[in-house]
Amino acid sequence: MTRRPDETALPGMIDARQRVTGRIPYAMDVSVPGMQHARLLRSTSAHARIVRIETDRARAVPGVSAVVSGADLVAAKGLFPYFGPVFRDQPVLAIGKVRYLGEPVVAAVALDLDTAQRALDLVEVEYEELPAVFDAAAALEAGAPQVHDAPPPTGPTYADIIVHTQAGTNICNHFKLRKGDVEAGFAQADFVFEDEFTSPPIQHVTMETHNAVADVRPDSITVWASTQHPFSLQSTLAEMFGRPAAGVRVIIPTLGGGYGAKGYPKIEPLVAVLSWFARRPVRLHLTREEEFLTITKHGTSIRMKTGVLRDGTITARQSTCFFNTGAYADVGPRLIKNGGFGTGGPHRIPNVWVDSYAVYTNIVPAGAFRGYGINQAAWAYDSQLDMIARRLGMDPLALRMQNLLVDGDRLMTDEPMVDAHFRELLGTAAREIGWSADEVPVVRDGRVRGKGLSCIVKATVTPSTSTAQAKLGEDGSLYILMSSVEMGQGVKTAMAILGAERLGLPISRVRVSEPDTDLTPYDQSTGSSRSTFSMGTAVRGAVDQIRGQLFALASDELEIAEGDLEIVPGGRVAPRGAPERGMEFGELVRRSRSGNLLGQFIFRTEGGLDPETGLGIGSVHWHQAAGAAEVEVDLATGKVEVTRVHAGVYAGRIVDPVQAELQTEGNIAFGVGQALSEEMIFDHGQLQNGSLADYLIASIGDMPGEISLDVLEHLEADEIHGIGESAMPPVTAAIGNAVYRATGVRIMDLPITPEKVLRGLREQRSVR
Amino acid sequence: MTRRPDETALPGMIDARQRVTGRIPYAMDVSVPGMQHARLLRSTSAHARIVRIETDRARAVPGVSAVVSGADLVAAKGLFPYFGPVFRDQPVLAIGKVRYLGEPVVAAVALDLDTAQRALDLVEVEYEELPAVFDAAAALEAGAPQVHDAPPPTGPTYADIIVHTQAGTNICNHFKLRKGDVEAGFAQADFVFEDEFTSPPIQHVTMETHNAVADVRPDSITVWASTQHPFSLQSTLAEMFGRPAAGVRVIIPTLGGGYGAKGYPKIEPLVAVLSWFARRPVRLHLTREEEFLTITKHGTSIRMKTGVLRDGTITARQSTCFFNTGAYADVGPRLIKNGGFGTGGPHRIPNVWVDSYAVYTNIVPAGAFRGYGINQAAWAYDSQLDMIARRLGMDPLALRMQNLLVDGDRLMTDEPMVDAHFRELLGTAAREIGWSADEVPVVRDGRVRGKGLSCIVKATVTPSTSTAQAKLGEDGSLYILMSSVEMGQGVKTAMAILGAERLGLPISRVRVSEPDTDLTPYDQSTGSSRSTFSMGTAVRGAVDQIRGQLFALASDELEIAEGDLEIVPGGRVAPRGAPERGMEFGELVRRSRSGNLLGQFIFRTEGGLDPETGLGIGSVHWHQAAGAAEVEVDLATGKVEVTRVHAGVYAGRIVDPVQAELQTEGNIAFGVGQALSEEMIFDHGQLQNGSLADYLIASIGDMPGEISLDVLEHLEADEIHGIGESAMPPVTAAIGNAVYRATGVRIMDLPITPEKVLRGLREQRSVR
To answer: A31-130+204-291 has which CATH code?
Structure first.
């Protein structure tokens, strides 16, 4: 089946040439007349009352236009200096207290960065230390230091967020899932497993660090930023400055990577406030070291209790998840839902009880991270599943296959699974990695090999909305207006392909916008692997309006019923079977004297969970992925080498095969780093490895020698699934299982460092 | 009757604050990384063969990236170096021949302007002089030098353009109007008047001179320009570089004035070509002196023969118009149509014969100018009408009133006049100026006063197309996407008002785009006083789609039939008569979960003239204006002082009273300058006064001591008429008539200089 006419099938990003010639303009390339530069002074305490901030000498430095601290924010009239996508709990600069080590306390704006730094060097801050708490579980103990004195202020937020706060505790939010009778399930079980699995905070390490330029005037606010959420930023700034959203213009050039780090406002509210104080445009561009102090993936511990029958049937699961959301909530209150119901995995489990907590502590805030809670959940359930298989004497593949959801089964949220492809994905993974139930690890040259598997299910944010407008010009070229953010994932190319194929155009005839809230229509977010599906549907809807107009025009011109016409590749409408009698789009537009044809479409998905039971519709469709890994463990050093990885993801219909594969490769890289080395190490709140000299992302040398990819396509549903994140969690879990299968060492706490493996090997020997 | 709810009626431009604080970004504020600067070497001959151009030494100057001449254009592969809105007759740099003195011959691109100039100083150009012709009538004589050797190449052009070229002559185009039996009309007349009236070429003198930045890459063309025609520029560049229009992005910031000077491409094609040669972004910003060598209003002579009955009834008119379009056609081939049928004025004339010629000569090209042919036409017919009145012994007011079109009368083009308000406009003008049929000029202190009247009708370009898109955000703010060019006329404000009033919003809640061909939908042009009407209709259509969606949403939410709902000022929909039960737009949008409501509209007007008879539909509606002037003439010096001016224009429905009045005041300023002082003086093709030191635009000191304005509103038609140009022609003609009435001196040739008046006074005396 040919999915796409001729040239539209050409792979490659529409901005490829600009990309490789260095001509993509990023936010950091924006220069505004009169623009000055900001530097930040950050907290040296993890939790302290701010006794005094002395800024007079800093303000006196020539070339300094503003020195701002929390006291200035409080004194400012008409300014609401807090932000946050769920709770408005984060001040742009610390007010009264600091809550983590590295929190911005004072900002200086000056002609250049050196001058701003000179000013900050003259600032004196006096702290009164407060007891601090860094561990999520510890933060929930009685008498634990309280990170926030009062319940966090809320504001307008997202439709899918369920809020259960508990005043007087560090519980930022609590997601509950109650399905079936979990106690009965455990009673029915032959075996009950109880384990705790942890994942550390890690950093996204986008190539482009956070940066923004803000120009705040009495009559207008304009912000250029590297963010995945233009409209969230717009409404945040409108709220902060007490202006209508239309008074705030947010322009988003291409991002140098996002991975969730740029989801929701981060530094942009501060930059806007600084522009307001400095009365001129201000740029802030974080250093790599500051990036580590801005946002992380949630460090998480998951206590997982699973009941199984002797034959491997899962009867019940209870999960207690502690997501350490750090000093400020960010999107933690929502992420715990995905991480919470995610602990069920893609398995048939009749009785489920989940308590998933976002917990405030005195470390760097945590937020969205590629995989969005599923990395942590899959690490727990798919590690435990291999432990169960071993206990039951079952093949881990067979145990999985037996429990994987098939069409009609109920998900954790009790909604029925449709279009399930877990078995196919996992089967391919097992085949590609050369899985054998009977394989016994063999030690050779002091090294031992093993293989592991994993399979996950992941929600896409539901309900959600994407909107698009389109026009077809007099030369027959298509323009798409949309607000999805290009961040290297190729959304502009995907939208160009989707628009082009509806009209049989080559993608070279399509122009796709970047977000500009003044000009481009609403999109909820660029995240949750939703763009190709959600914005793609909106774009196709808008283009279909134009397609309909083309048929109507051609019908008039050719005097042939619309039903007897068809699109001919190259941008023509012709009588069915007589392409030579067709008319070019441009000619149709010109004859219509309409200047351009216009189209628009609003695409909404529906869903939502009951706030008390967590049951309902969790996702408009479910992302499905499987991974397999082969590792070689050096028994002398404990070092794990990943020799082979397979990653599979269900795409529904593939829009761009090249980019779909590249995204999947990217997930392998992330999954390997997360499995073996990535970890932000805090000592009493002080980050120990906050630079790329010390923090170990996977390098090309860590990549598996062999990889295989399975971007699984099933055209019958004509549905597009996002594939940006789902293949990452199973890669990590499969590596853990491979190490387990190779060595018998069960690492519960990521990452799988040589030290941990070696310790496990030694404990094995001492047990023997 | 209240037209607008509360705050929407507030006067003032939406960009007023930016405007007065110097923060409007103009094209000249655009800066692109790597951008270099261009300077031009211009022809020193009015008509010559280019024998040799030596550029080697220029190219060797350090810092020079390109030196380009016509030979390079011819040698360039894939480049079509000609442009023009009707005929592609203008090379971006002279090729083979120069056709006017001041034509660009060589361009240098360099790091800075001084370097570019140093390079040009080293260029040698050798010319072989050719016989030249400067006067339009002379250019049509047998044996006249031919400005163009071959008939001009044509290309896609505008729907309303009628082309009659005559190979082997300097006739660029010929518009014919043939109505009734003009010979019979003259035979029937008691008197036949034959006179010739001339108007000189004048310059638009926009505050901002032409400037553009072009960035031409193998895969993209981006141009920032000060032009009134973004889409014309886009298609021109697409044609020149052989690319689809979608490969060309045209961005138009606010203009510092246009007045027709910036209609259609001017310097932008050259700048793009220079970027192509220099392989980097290039800016060209014309000096004021160069502006005079770029585009002018057509110098025109009109031979007018009019037959009248003794009672003042006009029986026939024959007009022969020579519009001197200079060396290149620009939009002259279309303008002669408007100038041609414009010679009938707003009068009932049963028999008409018009030959209107655009004539090539060896002077600076002429194109669109505020008034678009009607200035020249009105100067002829309304001057002659006062001569007729004097000959018949009639009151000029009465003679006009008797002949003015009323509803149902036939215009020159034989279409019926509807919604005629000429008598009302002229009556008001006469009353405001204190017109009396019996008034006799009285000499006091060597000065004599007199009054004059004039009344005009003007077409708006028909057929034409404007399109708009709109969105309503979650805060209830409205965004309008359109491609009309803001050039100080306030189109953004007008569109904001029109959009706002459909929704009962304050205009502070409306954002209006500027043109960006990648993002904003098609508009044919910003000219012909069409934007408020044409784009306004498109904007209202797009907003009405949103309005309809709001009613539907509110009907669902409030469970009240749509017909029982109404818009309440401030942005709410409420049950009729119960505003307190209404819902805010933002709330409706949020509850709809659509992110934004979207609207779009394509507005087309229909019409066209028969190419052989000039009869048909010349305009979708007709602009109507009247003027009155009082002058005081110094009999010793001949100097004319304009003491009072009244300008009246029919607006249909007024959109913005303040701006409507300011536009009318602007027309007075233009009309006075055109009447008394503006004239580009050529000597054998050499411009004698091409600088603001020598060229006399009206200054504030030349403004009448008293002015009165009549922006006439009739709401019953609910129609918006453009008011940007129509009040200008009658001001000039009324001043001429006032001088005539004061002194008896009939100036036939604009401007009315003291020398001409003095000569007339002396001739009177010698006749006496």
So the answer is: 3.90.1170.50
How many other β-carbons are positioned within 10 Å of the β-carbon of residue A767? 6
Query: Following DSSP, what letter does each residue of B681-709 receive, concatenated?
Result: -EETTEES--STTTS----GGGS-SEEEE
* pLDDT digit string, tens, across residues A11-31: 578 888 888 888 899 999 999
Distance CA A513, CA A479 (A): 8
Which residues in chain B are contacts of A604 at CB distance < 8 A?
Answer: 593-594
Greatest alpha-carbon pair distance for chain A in Å reads: 88
In whole angstroms, give the CA distance from residue A222 to residue A218: 11
For B397-443, give the secondary structure using H, E and C: HHHHHHHECCCCCECCCCCECCCCCHHHHHHHHHHHHCCCCCCCCCE
pLDDT value at position A729? 97
> Can you give the pLDDT at residue A768?
57
- A281 alpha carbon, distance to own chain's centre: 30
Size of interface A-B (CB pairs under 8 A): 158
Fold of A6-25+464-604: Aldehyde Oxidoreductase; domain 4 (3.30.365)
Beta carbons of A517 and A230 less than 8 angstroms apart: yes
A523 to B595: CB separation less than 8 angstroms, yes or no: yes
User: What is the chain A residue with the closest CA to B220?
Assistant: A18
Second CATH level (architecture) for the domain A372-458+620-767: 2-Layer Sandwich (3.30)
CATH architecture of residue range(s) B296-461+610-767? 2-Layer Sandwich (3.30)
Kindly report whether the peptide bond that precedes residue A751 is cis, defined as omega within 30 degrees of 0.
yes
| 8 A C-beta contact, residue B328 and residue B99 | yes
Omega before residue B751 within 30° of 0, cis:
yes
Listed in order, strand segments (DSSP E) in B99-210 are: 104-110, 124-129, 171-179, 191-199
Q: Taking CB atoms and an 8 Å limit, are B522 and A596 in contact across chains?
A: yes
How far apart CA B267 and CA B516 sit, in angstroms, is 19
- Among residues B239, B238, B258, B241, the alpha carbon closest in space to that of B249 is found at B238
State residue A11's pLDDT score.
Answer: 54
Q: Do B600 and A596 touch (CB under 8 A)?
A: no
Q: Which of A511, A516, A601 sits opposite B246 (nearest CB)?
A: A511
> Which pLDDT score is estimated for B630?
98
In this predicted structure, the answer to whether residue B501 has a pLDDT above a threshold of 80 is: yes
C-alpha separations of A579 from A563, A566, B2 in Å: 15, 9, 57
Tell me the pLDDT tens digit for each residue of B574-626: 999 999 999 999 999 999 999 999 999 999 999 999 999 999 999 999 999 99
Equal CATH topology for B6-25+464-604 and B296-461+610-767: yes
How many residues would you count in chain A? 768
Chain A hits for B217, Cβ within 8 Å: 23
To 10 degrees, what angle do helices B585-592 and B536-558 make? 70
Is B6 a residue whose pLDDT tops 80? Answer: no
- For residue A298, what pLDDT is reported? 98
| pLDDT score recorded for residue B716 | 86
Low-confidence residues in chain A, pLDDT < 50: 1-10
Mean pLDDT, to the nearest integer, of B700-723?
Answer: 93
Asked whether the beta carbons of residue A475 and residue B522 sit closer than 8 angstroms, the reply is no
Can you give the residue ranges of every domain in chain A?
Answer: 6-25+464-604, 31-130+204-291, 372-458+620-767
- Is residue B151 over pLDDT 90? no
Which DSSP string corresponds to B640-671?
Answer: EEEEEEEEEEEEES-S-HHHHHHHHHHHHHHH
Q: Check residue A9 and give its pLDDT.
A: 42
DSSP code of A395? -
pLDDT tens across B9-58, in order?
A: 445 788 888 888 888 999 999 999 899 999 999 999 999 999 999 999 99
